[in-house]
Write a structure and sequence with these properties.
This protein is of the alpha/beta class and 377 residues long. Helices cover 38% and strands 19% of the residues. It is globular. The relative contact order is 0.11.
Length: 377
């Protein structure tokens, strides 16, 4: 009997101990009491919108239109190939002279539209050349893509503009450029020591002058556009002040193009502040297109500032033969489309390539013009 009672006592003590230990374990580590398969998982936070949603439906539609134009530009189309037919009712109809955008461009556009206006999305029928933007269960934009009836080379006299960036550092290089029998446009950095003097020489020599606007690149501050550059976190008042100073430092300028600026030209608010000053000073804007995500051209069109977009960088490789090859490519683009803009830089190899190509560029079937002749207004 005593042995039995002792055994029961030990068993009861063990049971009570296990219950107490289990209770303490739940209290100290509650997450261990839930099976792994049932434990809640933390959901990924939603993608933040590009900007606070606009309360005005018309403002939303305007933002959508800007994104559409930017996507067309990134797909290689020129916005002068876009014809709008607005109607009082129904979607805005857009006729586009060009090929249907690739899937990568459309996927990116669809994502951007949703971030502007939740629920906005694309419906595409490539076989029919039809693209629609749906928002609030209704089509808002309807784009019809079609190739021109004839894909023949441009029948008129093709026009080419060549812009030399980064000028103002060396007065000697500017004089050598003026000595060329080629009407190269001078894009002058306002912070350089010879900016004003070179602008005067270019003007007296009959050359077009642009302000080469220093803007923040994606690699900033490792890639530095200069101490006086425009940065995306600047207030509009400071951007306006710097822009007015650039205009003062580069006399006779008729327009401007971005120096670096791969991050700044993706920023709508910053570009709007820039274009406000340019419009007031009667300047045009040339998008150097240092990023395919640039909204600069679309914003210029929205602000009614005359604008154009660079077609070919001529001297990404600083070899004379490579540069002459890119000049030939610029000529081919112009003959195909009717016009083309090339941008180059003050390298000795570039100057030599331009000398060698002066006879080709002076051919009677090619017209060398200032950028102002190639603007969309």
């Amino acid at each position: 009997m005593r042995v039995t009672l002792a055994a029961l006592f030990v068993l009861g003590f063990l049971v009570v101990s296990l219950v107490v230990l289990s209770h303490l374990r739940e209290k100290l580590h509650p997450e261990l009491s839930t099976p792994v398969a049932q434990q809640p998982t933390e959901a990924e936070p939603p993608l933040p919108p590009l900007r606070p949603p606009a309360a005005d439906p018309q403002a939303v539609l305007e933002d959508i239109r800007v994104e559409l134009e930017s996507a067309l530009l990134r797909s290689g189309l020129a916005l002068d190939d876009l014809a709008s037919q607005s109607t009082a009712e129904g979607p805005v109809r857009l006729e586009v002279r060009g090929e249907f955008p690739p899937s990568g461009i459309l996927s990116d556009l669809d994502r951007r539209l949703h971030r502007i206006a939740p629920g906005a999305h694309l419906q595409s029928r490539p076989a029919e050349g039809l693209l629609e933007v749906i928002w609030r269960d209704s089509p808002r934009f309807r784009l019809h893509f079609h190739l021109p009836a004839d894909r023949q080379p441009f029948a008129g006299r093709p026009r080419i503009a060549i812009v030399m960036d980064d000028l103002g550092r060396s007065l000697g290089f500017g004089k050598e450029l003026l000595a060329l029998d080629i009407p190269v446009t001078f894009a002058i950095l306002p912070g350089e020591p010879h900016a004003g003097e070179l602008a005067e020489l270019a003007y007296l020599g009959g050359r077009e002058v642009l302000i080469h606007l220093p803007m923040e690149p994606l690699g900033y501050p490792l890639a530095n556009p200069g101490d006086d550059a425009l940065l995306v976190d600047m207030p509009a008042a400071e951007i306006n002040r710097r822009m007015r100073e650039y205009v003062r430092l580069v006399p006779h300028a008729v327009g401007g193009n971005n120096h670096m600026g791969s991050r700044f030209t993706e920023n709508r608010e910053g570009m709007r502040a820039v274009l406000e000053v340019m419009k007031g000073a009667d300047l045009f804007f040339l998008d150097s297109l240092t990023t395919r995500q640039s909204v600069a051209y679309a914003e210029a069109r929205q602000a009614r500032v005359p604008a154009a977009v660079r077609d070919v960088f001529l001297d990404n490789v600083q070899e004379v033969e490579k540069i002459t090859g890119e000049i030939h490519r610029l000529v081919r683009v112009a003959k195909s489309r009717g016009h083309a803009i090339g941008i180059c830089h003050p390298y000795p190899q570039t100057l030599e390539a331009l000398r060698r190509m002066s006879s080709v560029l002076g051919q009677s079937d090619i017209e060398l013009v200032p950028v102002a002749r190639l603007l969309v207004r």
